Amino acid sequence: MNTEHNCPPIVDRATWNDARGVLLQQEKALTRMKDAISAARRRMPMVEVRSDYIFDGPNGSVTLLDLFEGRPQLIVQHFMFAPDWEEGCDGCSMMAEHIGPLSHLHARRTSFVLTSRAPLDSLHAFRDRMGWQLPWYSAVGDDFNVDFGATVDGEERQAISVFLRRGDRVFHTWSTHARGEEPFMLVFDLLDLTPFGRQEVWENSPAGTPQEPTYSWMRLSDNYDDGERPCRCHEKPGSPGPPSVKPEVSG
Asked: What is the greatest pairwise CA distance in the chain?
């Protein structure tokens, strides 16, 4: 790629330091804002939900309460994988690959699981292909996905839900959808540090910066050599197509 016209202006170190100082104050303000939002999230009210949603797991049927594994908190990634799909969503896969060892979450009294509507055999075969170790359960029926906005009018939606347990009672404390999942996908934050950014058409970038349709570059991590293939989750029946403008902010 010829990047001659895509570079920032060239300046001396003193000028760069001044510009960096201005941006640093904005970054610090963003960090403080994030802390304030997190504090507000911790004070959100919660709603009691069924504890007996049923899932298929490696040891048979389990309930939503069982997914806590005795811990008081549970994060669920509603992974887009419909019953008739041959493989999981590219974007959901990217998020799963950013989770890392669950021991860090467990140390803070928090469990984490993936749930999808596809049969358990399909989920675990795909997990083995991708080399993941994350616990993954098949939701039996549509109620769980529908109730938490992960299946809407028969279409798969990416989502995260957080639950709190008090004895045998389960409470829903928080959910997010669409771009609300971006904080869990480090690749976006890393790309946002670079002069080219995410290189998607919605971004406010200098003229000449390489840009492509939103999400069109995303692949399963073992499929980036297939350069002509678009994000597969948007090819599947019942899935939204890749947007050509700024992706919707949802929470």
From this structure: 64
CA dist., res. 162 & res. 174, Å (int): 5
Q: Is 195 helix (H, G, I), strand (E, B) or coil?
A: coil
Contact assessment for residue 237 and residue 108, using Cβ atoms and an 8 Å cutoff: no
Residue matched to tokens 């992974």: 79
Q: How many CA atoms lie within 13 A of 108 on its CB side?
A: 7
Scan for tokens 């409470």, then name that residue.
171
Q: What is the CA radius of gyration of the chain?
A: 20
Distance from C-alpha of 231 to C-alpha of 215, rounded to nearest angstrom: 7
Considering the entire predicted model, what is its pTM?
Answer: 0.86
* Residue 185: both structure tokens together: 């996908």
Question: pLDDT per residue over 196-242, tens digit each?
Answer: 988 999 999 888 888 989 888 888 888 887 655 655 555 544 444 44
The number of beta carbons lying within 10 Å of the beta carbon of residue 66 is 17
* 75-115 per-position pLDDT tens digit: 999 999 999 999 999 999 999 999 999 999 999 999 999 99
Residue with tokens 């075969």: 125
Q: Which two tokens stand for residue 134?
A: 């994350």
Rounded CA gap, 211 and 113, in Å?
34
